[in-house]
């Protein structure tokens, strides 16, 4: 589904990714772990198409198409979802308005019929219920006044409504308490653990992987994947840290 080959990227002249290579197949969940400054968030931003990052080498293919040749909205319509470490607030625009507009824009890009208000609200209610988010919160401005846990649950509701083929989740566990972590983990499994979908889960800690068990774990250090393994690698990193492993 996703093929990253020898990817190099920099921002403001600072080289961050230094030949990163990674393959994700349909039906797989991959976790990326690594120390601060390794390039984890940069990888997420590059895949999502965030401005300011210059690709200086390598390639990224998503479902057979050149991802780096697509604009951010084209990547989203093609089935890529980017979850942020710090979800942004959008005053003046309700969650319902924002998500219906986003979903229908993607459908239009793909040549599909847009959803009516009633059909959209049914989907939104199902996803909100699944994440324990009151439907009244869906009528509020996007993330305004939400706690950290509510913002992350709201982002998972967004993912459920958009229903992407590939979710790139950048430190989704950041700021979550134990209960919220379980709810968000269950949401990722319910929405994305399917044969035709894939997840790239970027995290510092093993704790989220107790709920979302990865098929593969990769250690990212100094802009490259330096080690890969199964789910047990995350436990090893939790015990021993990155010293030595990332050397």
DSSP strand content: 25-35%
CATH superfamily: P-loop containing nucleotide triphosphate hydrolases
Count of helices? 8
Number of separate strands: 12
- Shape designation: globular
| Radius of gyration of CA atoms, rounded to a whole number | 18 Å
Domain count, please report it.
1
Give the uncertain stretches in residue-range form: none
Average pLDDT:
91
Assigned CATH class:
Alpha Beta
Percentage of residues in helical conformation? 25-40%
Query: What's the N-to-C terminus distance?
Result: 30 Å
Order of helices and strands: EEEHEEHEEHHHEHEHEEEH
Strand order of the largest sheet: 6-9-10-3-11-12
Classify the secondary structure makeup into a structural class: alpha/beta
**Proper CATH architecture:** 3-Layer(aba) Sandwich
Main β-sheet description: 6 strands, mixed
Task: Report the CATH topology name.
Answer: Rossmann fold
3D architecture notes:
Residues 2-247 form the ABC transporter domain. Belongs to the ABC transporter superfamily. Ycf16 family. This is Fe-S cluster assembly ATPase SufC. Keywords: ATP-binding, Nucleotide-binding. It comes from Sphingomonas arantia. With 247 residues, this protein is α/β, with parallel strands linked by helices. It has a single domain, classed as P-loop containing nucleotide triphosphate hydrolases (Rossmann fold, 3-Layer(aba) Sandwich). Helices cover 36% and strands 29% of the residues. The protein has eight helices and twelve strands. It has helices at residues 40-48, 72-78, 95-109, 117-130, 135-138, 148-162, 178-192, 232-240; strands at residues 2-11, 14-24, 29-33, 53-62, 65-66, 80-83, 90-94, 141-142, 166-170, 198-202, 216-221, 224-229. Strands 6-9-10-3-11-12 form a six-stranded mixed sheet, with helices on both faces. The protein has a four-stranded antiparallel sheet with strand order 2-1-4-5. The radius of gyration is 18 Å and the shape is globular. It starts with a strand and ends in a 7-residue tail after the last helix. The model has no long low-confidence stretch (mean pLDDT 91).
């Amino acid at each position: 589904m996703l093929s990253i080959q020898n990817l190099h990227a920099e921002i403001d002249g600072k080289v961050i990714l230094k030949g990163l290579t990674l393959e994700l197949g349909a039906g797989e969940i991959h976790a990326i772990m690594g120390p601060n400054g390794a390039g984890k968030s940069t990888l997420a931003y590059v895949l999502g198409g965030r401005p300011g990052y210059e690709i200086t080498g390598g390639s990224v293919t998503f479902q057979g198409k050149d991802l780096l040749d697509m604009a951010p909205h084209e990547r989203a319509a093609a089935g890529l979802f980017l979850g942020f470490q710090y979800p942004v607030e959008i005053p003046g625009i309700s969650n319902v308005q924002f998500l219906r507009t986003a979903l229908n824009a993607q459908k239009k890009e793909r040549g599909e019929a847009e959803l009516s208000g009633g059909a959209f609200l049914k989907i939104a209610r199902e996803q909100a219920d699944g994440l324990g988010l009151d439907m009244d919160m869906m009528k509020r401005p996007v993330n305004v006044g939400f706690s950290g846990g509510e913002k992350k649950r709201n982002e998972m509701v967004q993912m459920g409504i958009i229903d992407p083929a590939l979710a790139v989740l950048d430190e989704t566990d950041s700021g979550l308490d134990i209960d919220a972590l379980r709810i968000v983990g269950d949401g990722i499994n319910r929405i994305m653990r399917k044969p035709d979908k894939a997840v790239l889960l970027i995290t510092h800690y093993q704790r989220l992987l107790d709920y979302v068990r990865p098929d593969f774990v990769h250690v990212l250090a100094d802009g490259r994947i330096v080690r890969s393994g199964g789910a047990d690698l995350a436990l090893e990193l939790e015990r021993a840290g990155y010293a030595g492993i990332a050397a």
